[in-house]
Amino acid sequence: xxxxxxxxxxxxxxxxxxxxxxxxxxxxxxxxxxxxxxxxxxxxxxxxxxxxxxxxxxxxxxxxxxxxxxxxxxxxxxxxxxxxxxxxxxxxxxxxxxxxxxxxxxxxxxxxxxxxxxxxxxxxxxxxxxxxxxxxxxxxxxxxxxxxxxxxxxxxxxxxxxxxxxxxxxxxxxxxxxxxxxxxxxxxxxxxxxxxxxxxxxxxxxxxxxxxxxxxxxxxxxxxxxxxxxxxxxxxxxxxxxxxxxxxxxxxxxxxxxxxxxxxxxxxxxxxxxxxxxxxxxxxxxxxxxxxxxxxxxxxxxxxxxxxxxxxxxxxxxxxxxxxxxxxxxxxxxxxxxxxxxxxxxxxxxxxxxxxxxxxxxxxxxxxxxxxxxxxxxxxxxxxxxxxxxxxxxxxxxxxxxxxxxxxxxxxxxxxxxxxxxxxxxxxxxxxxxxxxxxxxxxxxxxxxxxxxxxxxxxxxxxxxxxxxxxxxxxxxxxxxxxxxxxxxxxxxxxxxxxxxxxxxxxxxxxxxxxxxxxxxxxxxxxxxxxxxxxxxxxxxxxxxxxxxxxxxxxxxxxxxxxxxxxxxxxxxxxxxxxxxxxxxxxxxxxxxxxxxxxxxxxxxxxxxxxxxxxxxxxxxxxxxxxxxxxxxxxxxxxxxxxxxxxxxxxxxxxxxxxxxxxxxxxxxxxxxxxxxxxxxxxxxxxxxxxxxxxxxxxxx
Length: 701
Fold this sequence. Notes:
Number of helices: 38
Largest sheet: none
CATH superfamily of the domain at 6-186: Tetratricopeptide repeat domain
Strand content: under 5%
Helix content: 55-70%
Structural class: mainly alpha
Distance between the termini: 42 Å
Shape: globular
Radius of gyration: 30 Å
Number of strands: 0
CATH topology of the domain at 6-186: Serine Threonine Protein Phosphatase 5, Tetratricopeptide repeat
């Protein structure tokens, strides 16, 4: 079945059902049998197998009935489909499934021309739905339903509601098309907005201009959106003209400040960085009290720094901290001004700014980064004792943060620019069930977990958890191959006991035994957060291993060896990417243990080469790890073994990594981290560095 060989799956499952009618595995086998019938389109047999599944007690009747309804839909039997969907709806608990079922019921009613009943289902969805895009989609479908029922007035009302209420939604654009085709007058400004957000920039501008002509006393917002549309359409000069019209003709408009920022951004897209910086400065000077004035100075400073105009950047950063000391950018401005001086080799001036940050903003998020850079700079200047004091302060305050770990490595290397720590000579991987370490962990847990006098620490789940509906439903879903649905139940179970340390410990062990490594790690991390320990290292070794495990060791370590890569770097990357969840999927479409995007997978398969590659192969741990480690190895080769840019490229793209590396003087790894101008890749590299240190300590021999 999992290999896609459905004829053989059918033969095996039919034989099992025939020969072992009393076996405990018969019920999940029936579910897989039904799914195997679905693949070639044998819907009647699928329904029979699903109904046989329902004969035995089940907690997932909603899932089974929904699939029966889908099968009847394929058989073009809406009446039977409705009965099944209604059964599913009666036991469904999650909003997403409820919405999906109601939409399917509405479609079945439409097949029967039962328009009022279909509309009732859409109304029920609309009462609960929160997403603007989804609400617009439902309104559009309601408009279509009213039109099919012959009620044009009601249809127009729903289309107009989508257009007026949710202009950013694509369904609003579809509704707009319906209104225009019906000859219904639409407010030109609203029409332009909907067109703009749908990417129809030409029609958007035309609508905006008709609105300007028809409404000479407009407030000016239309110029702002016309500017955005022109910019998106690739007409920067016209975009600037519109922003200027708003600024000059409507100075009291609330969007004037944003128009200045957008105008500067247009100059950036044109490559005129000097004019962009002048625009930022002019806005801040002309509107010093504006809420975006500090933002403008900040953006100008960042732009100057990115163009390696360090003196201009320092002047802007200093101006920001002087004029707007309470700005949320003030502490970061001091930090970056220090970096600019550092890059100019004016180290004493850099220290002045970082020390000022530490003194004036002691609770800022980047205060320990400033401490680190003070220590690094003193180390570079040869003031060893003072450097040690500064770096040790970081280690003591945040020993397991990126800057704490990095400070430790600088002291260990006695260098201001050590590279990525070397791979360990050998690894020590303890067995999952180490009785001595586990006993120690349970004694530790008993010492602070505030257990009741009659409560014993056991590694098996107690009845209260075993009988929990989330657990039971999750287990049944997992047993029939519905992993994503099962994970929702297990996450709900984990959160239900989130303040119970004993349950978190027991669930960590339970999930690990089931091969559900991501929730196991999350339970272990929650247990550590509930504990009195201030650091991971203070916790028992067994608990540390639960939080930072090495799963799939044969695959990960084997591929690391085959590619000549530090094995613990591969382990840390996999933990960061997926928490060792081989079924993980990201919002961007990345898949599996090492989170390969299908298009990247195709490129890797071509380059390795790997024959007969299919995107679904990325769900196979063996292939996913092989591809991910190969891709990392190529990045390391491209950067001569430097893991900092290699990891930044793995997450943020190789071209960006090259750009960041080219902007880094002397290849300083710490400077490289600060040069990265996108939040996610910077955090990604820092987090893997931090985790790599933990893995070296736990498993590095």
